[in-house]
Amino acid sequence: MTASKLGSTVLGYPRIGPRRELKKATEAYWAGKIDEAGLQQVARELRAETWQELTAAGLDSIPGNTFSFYDQVLDTAVLFDAVPQRYRDLGLSDVDTYFALARGRDEIAPLELTKWFDTNYHYLVPELGPDTRFRLAGDKPIADFLEAKALGITVRPVIVGPVTFLRLAKASGHLGFNKIDLLESLLDAYAELLGKLAEAGAEWVQLDEPAFVGDSSLTELAALKRAYNRLSELETRPKILVASYFGDLGEATGTLADTGVEAIALDLVTAPEQRIVPALRNKIVVAGVVDGRNVWRTDLPTALGKAATLLGSAAEVVVSTSSSLLHVPYDLDAETDLDDAVRARLAFARQKVAEVVTLQKALTGGESLPATETAAPLRNDHVRGRIAALRPEHRTRAEYAQRAAAQQERLKLPELATTTIGSFPQTSAIRQARAELRKGTLDEAGYTERMRSEIAEVIAFQERIGLDVLVHGEPERNDMVQYFAELLDGFAATEHGWVQSYGSRCVRPPILHGDVSRPKPMTVPWSTYAQSLTDRPVKGMLTGPVTILAWSFVRDDQPLKDSAEQVALALRDEIKDLEAAGIRIVQVDEPALRELLPPRSADHRSYLEWSVGSFRLATSGAAVATQIHTHLCYSEFGEVIDAIDGLDADVTSIEAARSKMEIVADLKQVGYGRGVGPGVYDIHSPRVPDTGEIVELLKVAAAAVPGERLWVNPDCGLKTRGYAEVEPALTNLVAAAKQVREAR
Ligand code: GLN
Ligand code: ZN
Questions:
Q1: Whether residue 340 is found in the same domain as residue 444
Q2: Closest ligand 1 atom, CA of 632?
Q3: What single DSSP character describes residue 290?
Q4: Do 457 and 316 fall into the same domain?
Q5: Which of 444, 616, 686, 714 could bridge across to 395 with cysteines, CB 3.0–4.6 Å?
Q6: E-strand spans in 614-728?
Q7: Across-strand partners of 9?
């Protein structure tokens, strides 16, 4: 190996296209409107644009293979032939097999989809079993490299690293099968790939090992060591950059530094204090000092300072983003509607690349940094004053027993009360009304009228089905976070700020840029209208502070906790207004509670303290007789089970159908003694559960929870389903509750 140079870089780049060209092309392909050649053409243009843009911006090292038709983990699984037999048996073309893995096909479910670390990007979980035989089955990174080379650009292919790949994969349930046993055969395949990349002319390859910013076992660290010893000892290979992001690489830094890899990337935005081991002296350190996953302009002097302190501790220090830029929108300049004071504080992918280049020139060329004016965030002294005055009693309600008695006295609900999670099917009529409002062919008053008639239908429907606690159906909400962000001060919306969530699904997260406050009630007119139509209780529906933060870009000039408390105060006021308007039950959804959990368990406690604290701040102003519900989903609650108890909600509805009610026993074990509604119906599938199977699930739950505390509800909201399924499913749900009630 010759002495290596890398130079300024970014760890990855958006791929959906500045105008979501990839989304449009893949969806057109799925709908049969364009053929594969048409799809490949769009992909090729997007790749070329990205490489040319990054080259023109002056980056020294351009990441390659950042393009994907769906997801980079799926790409890696397919590249190394980890395709379960049932997908092969479909006998489809390569590209259609790929999409079958991602999206399923008639009778075949797709691979499981799950969140990429603590981001809102989702990857497909590879399935590995004793029959998995890794081999280099494709050439995607090589073809991508050659395509760039033909344009005169040498890229650094980016590939998920072997150990992170294994850690993220799911092992089939075969007894005695351990996925780490597959490491050697996987390394054979990586070795072959690296050889071919070198032959094609690649000077560098980037292998991503973000799994190691989380807790790692000794076995996992040993696998990391083995993998990079082996790969770095290959005779023919590009230089290797191992990239970490989203946290502190911790003990794995030393492990990697002791192998023969040339460069290591560290996230110095999330974990600025991470340990720089002496062995890094022979390595290139890629200093992630520009935030790759948030939208704020970099404070250049601070970032330069962070990179400069490493100068004596590494063979070369290069400036980079802290993670791939996949998680931020393309270009701030595309926005025309942003407030100037907010815009002055923002940087999207394009602007961040320019920051990296500027910082590198300052670091190694001694160029001075351009002067930047800083705009102050929107400040609200009233909100700050209220937060400063908070006391423990602002997060505490009366004893549960007292609340339960007062609520039952008022609500008079049966045992095993039935309800839903909030949303009802978003029909084409609802979507059309929203589109007309946007186009201006429908005015506010007309829109309100249409939403009200939808609410009236949803209420009548629920009464007919016989549910005990009703909802208004959330027709007026495009999205459960965006809806509130648009009504709160301190948030901004973008026109083109799309980021990939999964596959062709893109989201436009709101930007929480300043102090948050509520200019006027947000949900009261809808909820009170719904309640005016029925004698049964209608739940008020709010999104909780943690979920609002998790699905937004959040200001980074103050701790998340402070922003969460401001949102919580706005919700607290909303609950007061709902109560005053006669609403007796309020549900505060926190589906993202688990999502923001930090990667290392040492950091869990402080996270759970502030997240639970903000929920309690939002809800504890409620009267004793007001019943507070919360809703959690996206499974795997094991790690936050104590926190669920800590929320102190009167009723917690929680996804449980697929795991067959396991959560009920878990909750019982931690002494949870309030209301619980374990989902009895998996809303992610169009399948209608029959009464008998719901009865079986309810019997399991009823064995652990007394009837007056057990609720009967689906797993989650019904907005993605149609009435053709919802009607029989809810009918069966009500019948099942009745059967179990009567058998007692
Ligand atoms: N109330 C929301 C709904 O029913 C909750 C959605 C969620 O948990 N993701 O749609
Ligand atoms: Zn849910």
A1: no
A2: 8
A3: E
A4: no
A5: 616
A6: 627-632, 651-654, 675-678, 711-712
A7: 61
600 CB neighbour count, 10 Å cutoff: 15
Domain with 312, as residue range(s), is: 21-365
Residue 5 lies in a domain: no
Q: Which of 691, 631, 693, 686 is nearest to 657 (CA)?
A: 693
Query: Which value, in Å, is the radius of gyration of the alpha carbons in the chain?
Result: 27
Closest-CA residue, ligand 1 atom 10, reads: 717
Same domain, 185 and 254: yes
178 falls within a domain: yes
Residue 513 appears among annotated catalytic residues: no
Same domain, 79 and 212: yes
How many whole angstroms separate alpha carbon 44 and alpha carbon 46?
A: 5
Nearest Cα residue to 325 out of 549, 70, 546, 18: 18
User: Does ligand 1 come within 6 angstroms of the Cβ of 631?
Assistant: yes
User: Is the pTM above the cut of 0.85?
Assistant: yes
Tell whether 634 and 533 lie within a shared domain.
Answer: yes
Report if residue 132 sits inside a domain. Answer: yes
Nearest residue to 735 via CA among 688, 671, 685: 688
Are 283 and 417 contained in the same domain? no
Question: Which domain CATH number covers 689?
Answer: 3.20.20.210
Give pLDDT, residue 2: 40
Helix (H) or strand (E) holding 502: strand 499-502
The ligand placed nearest to the CA atom of residue 683 is 2
Number of domains within the chain:
2
Predicted pLDDT at 635: 66
Is the CB–ligand 1 distance for residue 268 below 6 Å?
Answer: no
Q: Are residues 420 and 530 in the same domain?
A: yes
CA 316, 317, 319: angle at the middle one, nearest 5? 145
457 CB neighbour count, 10 Å cutoff: 16
Residue list, CB under 5 A from ion ligand 2: 591, 633, 716
Contact present, 577 and 622 (Cβ < 8 Å):
no
Those residues of the chain that have pLDDT short of 50 are 1-3
595 belongs to a structural domain: yes
